[in-house]
Description:
This protein is mainly β. The protein contains one helix and 21 strands. The protein has a five-stranded antiparallel β-sheet with strand order 5-8-11-12-13, with no helix packed on it. It is globular, with a radius of gyration of 18 Å.
Amino acid sequence: HWRxxxxxxxxxxxxxGMAFSGRLAGVASGAPVKAPDGKRRIFLLHPTDGGLRWHRxxxxxxxxxxxxxxxxxxxxxxxxxxxxxIYLVTGGSTARVLSTGDSFRAWKAATPPMIHGKAxxxxxxxxxxxxxxxxxxxGDYHSPAARAGTAALTRDxxxxxxxxxxxxxxxxxxxxxxxxxxxxxxxxxxxxxxxDGGMTWQAIDGQGFxxxxxxxxxxxxxxxxxxxxxxxxxxSTLNLSKHAAxxxxxx
Length: 251
């Protein structure tokens, strides 16, 4: 039994994603919209009653979007909550990581070394392991095999972002920590594995997807892509990545 918990009749509003850390702490973000002060601000919602009701975050507490800046839906991986902080990533004219605490005050902005400058380029996905360690991926979806500026990592909670020593194999639309220092990143041109917190990446299996998901405490990682394609990886194979392969999943 589905229940509608938020609705706004506005053709300019698009909700890109939502994230929860625990049953009650949640946030949803949408594309920038014009606020009462005349500025373009990222649209934000926060829930009450565990998500049974959603309310707009006061526009003055939402970050201002720069000219030409946008956000991507990216299979709900352009936003995350970890250790009491919210992280949003953007693209278009610029590529930024925006972060704040639960009060939505004192937003901080970082500009990682990621490709941007076109409506199809920027940061698409963010994943944090804890309050210090995080990884972002992206690129230009019109050039899925281009590798420059497609990933970065932080070890200080997003204050500074580093280029990997070995970058992923192209545009990547989703990244996920699957264990302490092990990450997967995927996109239409392929899937990559890092076992050192995002500093080096290597291709596995040659198949590309759009989204990655793993149940807490689970031992299998699932990936979904175009044309109804699903794949599954066992964590036990990832540290022996040369042997890793996607198991078939019935469509």
